[in-house]
Amino acid sequence: MSTNIGYYIPHKAVWPVLATAGLMFMLIGFANHLNGSSIGSGMMLTGFVVFIVMLGAWFALQANESESGMYNHGVGISYRMAMMWFIFSEIMFFAVFFGALWYTRNLSVSWLGETGALSGPGRSTHDTLWPAFQAVWPTNGPGKVGGDFEPMGAFGLPFLNTLLLLSSGVTCTWAHHGLLAKNRPQLIKGLIATVALGFLFVACQATEYYEAYHEMGLTLGTGIYGSTFFMLTGFHGLHVCIGAIILSVVLFRSWKGHFTPENHFAFEAAAWYWHFVDVVWLGLFVFVYLL
To answer: CA-CA 20 to 30 A from 144: which of 79, 112, 156, 267?
Structure first.
């Protein structure tokens, strides 16, 4: 139990051990699955179930402790610092993929099309290996890896998804203002709208992927353009799913009467994460779809 001058020390918990066990089973199962073992898929599923149960139980424990008044100001600061560092790690995660896209589009593709870098007497790498290759983005590389494809345009579903995410950022902020003003109906309505817009974004992206695979010839195996496109948009879509699930939990807790203007870190953390997802999408829309 916390005091005004002390710091909350949690009781002995099994949840970190279960988290480690779940992740270990998932990793070992995945390795066995890649090597053709019959137990691989079962181990992965077991590890995933253990990890999900751990998350639910651990966060339920944290919610009960918070609502019971067991956390003091120092705990709140540590939570906020942890969330800031987590979001920073996510920024670095996406920076790697944006960096790979920039390197590919601005350096490696142009190098493949150069005629000045000699690979032999009087001949360039381009002339020797890929004389028909044109250094124009988007490309699937020399040899047209994965076949012909149609590049994804910026308008249509991508533009609609941009409007959906920007709108969800507004509704999330509106819900936060409702919480601060002790207006619980506004809080709940704002969260419902945010969660709905988030899952609608995912549905639109699934439709976009279906059209890309079945109508445009654009797949994960369509050379460097296909791989960078699906890696960036796919990981972002995963983050949208995670964010929408987190906000759904916050919505459920709000229905139960949790959170006050003075104690609502869980809502703040979910809102920070959601706004981060919004900003990443804006970068994706500009650098992947528009340019």
So the answer is: 156
